[in-house]
Amino acid sequence: MANSGKFDGVDFCKLDIELLTPELRQLGQGFRCVRGEFVTYWKQGRIQREVDSYLCQCWMVRVEDALAGYITLLADKLQVEDALLARESVKYRTFPAIKIGLLAVDRRTKGLGVRLVEWAIDYVITEVVPVVGVRFITVDALYDADVEPTYDASGFYVKLGFEFADPTEPLPPINPYLTMYLDLKPLIEVLAIEEMDEDWI
Fold first, then answer.
1. Taking a C-beta distance cutoff of 8 angstroms, is the pair 120, 71 a contact?
2. CA-to-CA distance for 89 and 71, rounded, in angstroms?
3. How far apart are CA 198 and CA 135, in angstroms?
4. Alpha helix stretches (DSSP H) within the chain
5. SS3 5
6. Which of 18, 54, 55, 86 could staple 50 via S-S, CB 3.0–4.6 A?
7. Which among 149, 198, 201, 158 has a CA at the least distance from the CA of 178?
8. Alpha-carbon radius of gyration of the chain
9. Complete domains list, the chain, with CATH
């Protein structure tokens, strides 16, 4: 669907990503997401209730008083069958992680979903990793076979470097999602090299 109205020509890379506060919860009139339940979660206050209960944190992007999209982050653990870090002599099969709980953007926006995920990755690397052990970002990518065509969010995350926790899981999955993960260590190491290079300048 072509962009129209309030989001025409908006460069979402230049807009602030704001922490959801009680003053901002009234936004959302006219929010149009491909998945209607993500609109309902916002309008019926589910997101704010979970924030108030310290179950997640939510950040949002707005254009003036119009909600353009939101993302929630929460604590998680990644469980895999194989020893994922065997090359590092780590034999665990359960690892600390931060989960992208909900990611919703107005269908009239362009590129905002990518911006929110990239922001979340950067936020976890710069704000969370320095103070607590976190190696992975996880997401349960929605898979809905009851619509035509089948809704499969995993392709979006694959393009951003995420991998399947169980690459052999049959489709449709038992649960209505596919668990995926992103290893943060390579990104952390690149960032450290860039910071070293800046120090030499």
1. yes
2. 34
3. 25
4. 36-43, 46-52, 112-123, 154-159, 185-200
5. helix
6. 55
7. 158
8. 18
9. 11-200 (3.40.630.30)
Give burial (CB, 10 Å; 0-12/13-18/19+) of 35.
middle
Residues 126-164 pLDDT 10s: 999 999 999 999 999 999 999 999 999 999 999 999 999
Q: Average pLDDT in the 13-29 region?
A: 89
- Residue of 142, 134, 201 lying closest to 172 (CA atoms): 142
Distance CA 122, CA 109 (A): 21
Tokens coding 34: 């491909």
Q: Which of 155, 160, 154, 127 is nearest to 141 (CA)?
A: 154
Tell me the pLDDT tens digit for each residue of 78-111: 999 888 899 999 999 999 999 999 999 999 999 9
Coil, strand or helix at 136: strand
Query: Which pair of structure tokens corresponds to residue 54?
Result: 């310290």
Q: How many CB atoms lie within 10 A of CB 97?
A: 21
Structure tokens, 59: 């950040």
Give the β-pairing of 57-63 and 66-79: antiparallel
